[in-house]
Fold this protein.
Amino acid sequence: MDDAGANLSGFDPEALARVPGALKGVIDAGDLSGAVTLIWRKGEVAQVTVQGRRDIAADKPMTRDTLFRIASMTKPVTSVAALMLMEEGKFKLDDPITKWAPEFADMKVLKNAQGPVEDVYDAPRDITFDDLFTHRAGLAYGFTSIGPIAHAHQRALGDVLASSMSEDDWMKALGGLPLSYPPGERFHYSHATDVLGFLVGRIAGTGFREFLMERIFKPLGMHDTDFYVPPEKRDRAAVVYRLDEKLDALQPVPFPRHDTPPAFCGGGGGLISTADDYLKFARMMLNKGELDGVRLLKTETVELMRANRLTDAQREIPFMGIPFWGGQGFGLGVSVITDPAKQEWMGAGSEGSFGWPGAFGTWWQADPVEDMVMIYLIQNSMPLEPEAAAQLATGQRMGGRVALPMFQKLVYAALGK
């Protein structure tokens, strides 16, 4: 653990020093394999903790440069890429996506989101770019859906974590499924950001991965971020685990190995990165589009990203079965805290703090009030099978879940919050 910067950046060193011990308890109990956390505040890294193992069977310890599958922490990166093209005048938020994605013309909508996939009506309007950014397109994930549409996603698209389809085949398959809700009606977590990523590639004419590499990762110096782990870096990669309730032990979740970039580079959840790499992206976002002389977005574009776009009625609808939006909203690819008091049961943060988590337990948040970035990296997969949303409130024992809010609250407590 390194906490040399704690005093200088305004933390109570003794209070901040409680973070590793709290996480160690969860790791020692067998609920997590390990964790890397990083806190940056007011221009410096205040604390890094590195604990547990990146590979239990091989007894390999976590390291600061361990590579993590960051799942939906990919979504803000994809959203930035798309907004770069919007700034270039390639599209407007209210433009229909069908110009670039004819697969989504003449969409059908389920009469009942949990009903038969054949029982549909014509979508009242086309999906727009704004719908994709805010998950209001009516698209779905199998794991966020209940009923026949959940299983239809699995049949049409395959494994949500490791698709082997080409971009075009995947877009055609998704476009062939009915929408769960009419475009614009509600936030329904979905493949929308995957679609947005493939649109980036089509609009730019470069391919999505190439756009990220040339326009975001190389300029920011994110040299360890990609959609696969090349052979020379494989030893640094953390294994993804899932708690097997019957065995009462963590078991590896298998992923295909690629020696070259995969055919499917999903903008909704495909990236692999490190704490220090993602810090560069998060700091760019905190600094309203610029980092160390490299500007990716205009200030006003990042402010637009970080402003809630959901209506009060949309925020009343539970997310994955929980009242997620009580103290927060959602902008263009990131969630934003709107009422810290109502947000307390979910975590901690000042008004205006923003970020987005990932399905393997990874999480980040940038807090403009505190001039702070927090990054929390673990590899603990939630179930992502069809209808998994129905089991999220129960399922795995709580140890692995309480570690994140514990981390959040201890960090803010060390600031006297």
